């Protein structure tokens, strides 16, 4: 979201839904988009932000986990936080199955 410019502008990144179970984060990101688009040229501050920034909004970083967390009323599924990437567990010890379960916790994988 932004206005074309000949010169580089500062960028803002907003994402929601790193963790599948944090449902409001998705909706906040969509609401943010709606506010920027709906109030552009109506609200002075929003117009200034859109004109002076390049705004990147990624509402759902974890769509497969988000969908999975809403498929059941069971607490274990409703509280799912990772994506649904298959695991490569090969351990034969029983407790390893609890440690090495499906998915990746996305916010543990940023190179910052």
From TrEMBL:
Its cofactor is Zn(2+). The lineage of its organism: Eukaryota, Metazoa, Ecdysozoa, Nematoda, Chromadorea. GO terms for molecular function: metallocarboxypeptidase activity; zinc ion binding. This is Peptidase_M14 domain-containing protein. GO terms for cellular component: extracellular space. Residues 1-112 form the Peptidase M14 domain. One of its GO terms (biological process) is proteolysis. It comes from the Eukaryota. Pfam families: Peptidase_M14. Belongs to the peptidase M14 family. It comes from Nippostrongylus brasiliensis.
């Amino acid at each position: 979201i932004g206005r074309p410019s000949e010169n580089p502008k500062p960028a803002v990144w907003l994402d929601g839904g790193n963790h599948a179970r944090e449902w409001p984060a998705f909706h906040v990101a969509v609401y943010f988009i709606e506010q920027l688009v709906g109030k552009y040229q109506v609200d002075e501050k929003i117009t200034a932000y859109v004109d002076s920034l390049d705004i990147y909004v990624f509402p759902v970083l974890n769509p497969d986990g988000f969908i999975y967390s809403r498929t059941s009323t069971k607490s274990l599924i409703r509280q799912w936080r990772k994506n649904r990437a298959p695991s490569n567990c090969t351990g034969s010890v029983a407790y390893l199955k609890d440690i090495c379960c499906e998915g990746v916790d996305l916010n543990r994988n940023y190179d910052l």
